[in-house]
Amino acid sequence: MRHERATEEAGPTRDLPKSAPALSLDELETQLRPVFLAALAGDAAAYRLFLDAISVRLRGYLRSMLARAGRHEPSEVEDVLQETLLALHLSQHTYDRTSPVTAWAHAIARYKLIDHLRRSGRHAGSLPLDDEAYQLADPAGGAASEARLDLERAMAALPERTRRLIDRVKLQGASIAEAAQAAGMTETAAKVAIHRGLQAMARFLSRRGGRPG
Question: Which fold, 149-213?
């Protein structure tokens, strides 16, 4: 009942499309903007719906961009997507309410994609500039203290070995091979643990709703 009531209050969330990739950017913006503004006001149901809808769009975008960079592994798409969703949560305070929320989300996705390719030892400079994205500063650099606490709580909920892997690879910039060796694991096992850990963190943050703290 609480979920249904929250969804009713969000209003436009009831009409979110199921096929976000088929919509034009203008149409998607019209659908998502009121939902995201409701999420920023603390509507947890609206926040989950926003994440579901933007995930569909960003998954297609990241799959296309990674393919252009010669990367075709579905798990890699999902890893960058989960990192992007975490960054969206941490960067809510950077959103300018006069700007399109879709452009803001795409800009963060592109930043995380370039960061991922650089960590993987691949040159990211050849990626085409994305007209859908604005150039933003490092979204993690100015994260509010409340959002940082959210990240710490999400990390703390993970098994210790997974937490150390994510810390080494995603925060310290170590390679998968280096992190796996330090943990006494194979690279494959480390990749799986990191992938599952990022998914768990994204679920944790989505349950906390649109307003950190």
Answer: Arc Repressor Mutant, subunit A (1.10.10)
